[in-house]
Amino acid sequence: MSAGSIALLVVYILNTLLAIIMIFVEKKQTSTVIAWLSVMVFLPIVGFVFYILMGSGLGLRTRLMLKKTNMANVINKRELDELIKNYNYNFDDTTGDLLVRHKSLIEFNYNWAGSILTDKNKIQFFNNGLDKFNALKNDIINAKNHIHLDYYIFANDTIGLEILNLCIEKLKQGVKVKILIDSVGSIKTRKRHFKNFEKAGGEFKEFFPPIIPLKLFNLKMNYRNHRKIAVIDGKIGYVGGINLRLDHMGFDRRLKPWRDAHIRIEGVGVYDLQATFLSDWRFATYDYKYPIKYLMPDYFPEIKSDGDCPMQVITSGPSNNKCEIKNALIKMINGAKKSIKIQTPYFVPDEVYFDSIKLAKASGVDVEIMVPEIPDKHFVYNASLSYLRDLVNLGVKVFTYRGFLHSKTMVVDDEICTIGTCNSDIRSFKLNFEINAIIYNKSFTQTIVDGYNNDKLNCDEFNLEKINKLSLLKRFNMSLCRMFTPLL
Q1: Strand pairing of 416-420 and 203-207?
Q2: Which residues does 487 contact at the CB level (< 8 Å), separation at least 6?
Q3: Among the listed ranges 96-105, 198-207, 329-338, 355-364, which one has the minimum average pLDDT value?
């Protein structure tokens, strides 16, 4: 047998084994299996390596870790639920029309995602990084007990360094500080960046760190903690799309102007952010023995808030197949009566999410989607345009923001909204650890609508005329990228 024949045989055996693993062990969808096998057929060696780094599922050890984390979370949640029920909104005591209209969504989120509706939250909206950054700095400076930061990107630039130095100062004052970063998102951030922070008594961990100290060779790099959470003293919380990096402040000339969405919460909704942070921290530190110890007064203090925003916090991740955030979004879309407004940097939906938007439009709902005009990831951007082209043909209005739009928001009927870390794409739905807040307050939602309408002033419409002007090469590229979206 020649060397070439042996090589082909080896490739055939490897592809067969990987197909078996993908179907019966990792239980990937058929479209994903076909896409990966296509890559490995046309790029046998490169495709195999790429799959090992980017496509392989969670290993047995990681699944066991996640299982233990989930079990610990169940124990914690029982006590947390009892704590939150002292504050939650009781339908029996109100005739609020808005909550009654969306009771089905509220109950779905509780039954499917375990999310309790909390009342009397005070919420502040940020649509640019600097405003959020300055507010966070001020809250860190005024922290009395603890600071918890959970960020997909915590850069070692001037933004990250300023937050880190503030945390070191707070450590010297006796405030406890924990920082958790994602290994892939913060791939350019080295551990030595946190050396002085740890020397001062701070606690630092990476989510899904590589087995060897080489971040580019991480067998779990396909799974990322995409959350951006900050909790101060258990009373103030932040969640949304803004990372701790210069370009998120709008300083990247190529991606200017940068638009984003983030919220600051005072109220019982902070409990959910705290619980999510502690769950992530427990996973990163392998601490499963006494999960109940986290439900201590310092972490979950008595809340006094005069806010008027009922909200639910939804989390999702690859530890199960429930896709909690995606299904919450679909439920919102299905419940729309008049209008849907979506902002997302990437639009690469799965079939169910895509169909829900088409059905909403066919039911007479006005649907608008806003994406950036300047891409930061060309492959994903071209795939997005392919999906959006199909929606335009159905009458959905698509707008491209003249800059980079990083907001992850949805508004339904101009009365409820969601803001968080989850993009409208397959990766966020199934592979990333994400977190979103759903807010049931018409006045606050109007703030998001006003921001959306203001962003429209800096948009171009991606309409049929514009689509028809696209070159044949561009259309081919869009379709080609879309074909491989199951790999994302």
Answers
A1: unpaired
A2: 32, 35, 36, 39, 54, 55
A3: 96-105
What residues are paired with 404 via a beta bridge? Answer: 258
Strand 366-372 with 397-401, pairing: parallel
Q: Which residues contact 52 (CB under 8 A, 6 or more apart)?
A: 219
The first and second tokens of residue 75, run together, are 């124990």
> What angle in degrees, to the nearest 10, is found between the helix axes of 378-393 and 351-362?
30
Cis, bond preceding 345 (omega within 30 deg of 0): no
Residues, the chain, total? 488
- How far apart CA 110 and CA 89 sit, in angstroms, is 13
| Stated pTM of the model | 0.87
C-alpha separations of 467 from 75, 392, 472, 474, 483 in Å: 53, 9, 11, 10, 19
Instruction: Evaluate whether 304 touches 330 at the Cβ level (below 8 Å).
Output: no
Catalytic sites, residue numbers: 226, 228, 233, 406, 408, 413
Cβ distance 270 to 236 under 8 Å? yes
Task: Write out pLDDT tens, residues 159-207.
Answer: 999 999 999 999 999 999 999 999 989 988 988 899 999 999 999 999 8
Cα 290 to Cα 237: distance, rounded to the nearest angstrom: 25
Which tens digit of pLDDT belongs to each residue from 70-95? Answer: 655 665 666 677 677 666 555 554 44
| CA atoms within 13 Å, Cβ hemisphere of 5 | 2
C-alpha to C-alpha distance for 63 and 59, rounded to whole angstroms: 6
